[in-house]
Structure formats: C-alpha cells, structure tokens
Amino acid sequence: MADRPADDPSTWATGRLLSTAARLVEHAWDAHLGQWGLNHAGFAVLWMLTGGPRSQRELARAMQVEDQTMSRVLERLERHGHVSRARSTVDRRRVEVSVTDVGRTALAEAGDGQAAERVVGDAVPDLPQLRAGLVAMVTDLSARRWPEEG
Q: What's the pLDDT tens digit per position in 40-72?
C-alpha cells in the first residue's frame, strides 16, 4: 500500500470512502432534484409528509437533524410552494407542516420509480448488495445515536 498514491481511493480509510461517496451521491442526487427546486433534504421531507401533516419537531426527529436545520429546509420548501405551515387547531403552539399539490407533483416526478437507481446504479457492480449493506448500517448507527427512550 505504501507505493500507491494518496489520491488512490483503494488506500483510503473506510470512513473517508463513505464520506466521499456520500458527498458525491448527494451532489448527483441534488442535481437531479434541482429540476423541481428540491434538494435531498427537501425531497425526504416531502416523502415523510405524504402520510399527513407533521410538526417541525417530528420531521427533525425523523430526519435525525436539529430543529434549526429542519426550519431551514422547511423555509426553502415553502418558498418553492412545496409545503404549507399552519397552526394546529388542537394545540395553537404546534405548527403543522403539510405537502401542497405542487409538492406532491414534484415528489412524484422527481422520485419516479427508479430515479435514485439511475443516479448511482451504474457506479456500483451490485446495487442490491450495496442497498442491503446501507440499510443495515443506517439501522444500526441510528439505533446507537438515538436509542429508544423507555
């Protein structure tokens, strides 16, 4: 390994490989989503809202980000007409976020069946195997970071 150049990814630590791959995939996915005024975070929020309105805090927890980060994501989505926010009729302190018709259309078009697979599918030899490994990693690391409260 000592005779390989430092810019050879096969010599990188696993953490660096994952970080770099995630960043590159995010850029490719964001380029695709940009056609609808979306980015990866906004797309995920729209997807979560298809089940009905949720609070900013619920969305932040589900996305595993801070409330302030979610606030910025929601501001962008609202500017593009993808979501609306309104005070809850049950609890006036709670602001409920809902997906709009514009947001539903953007979600359907941007996320059509194989969109993500087209973005990264040709870059890996076995996409199903990669997906299985990523699901296992996200599940395990999420449980470690946010253990169930009980």
A: 899 999 999 999 999 999 999 999 899 999 999
Residue 54 sits in a domain whose CATH number is: 1.10.10.10
40 domain residue, yes or no: yes
Q: Which residues contact 130 (CB under 8 A, 6 or more apart)?
A: 124
Taking the C-alpha atoms of residue 150 and residue 135, their distance in angstroms, rounded to an integer, is: 24
Q: Model pTM?
A: 0.69
Tell me if 95 is assigned to some domain: yes
Residue 6 domain-assigned (yes or no): no
Q: For residue 104, what are the domain limits?
A: 19-112
Q: Where are the alpha helices (DSSP H) in the chain?
A: 14-33, 40-49, 56-63, 67-79, 101-110, 115-120, 127-145
Number of domains in the chain: 1
Q: Is the pLDDT of residue 93 over 50?
A: yes
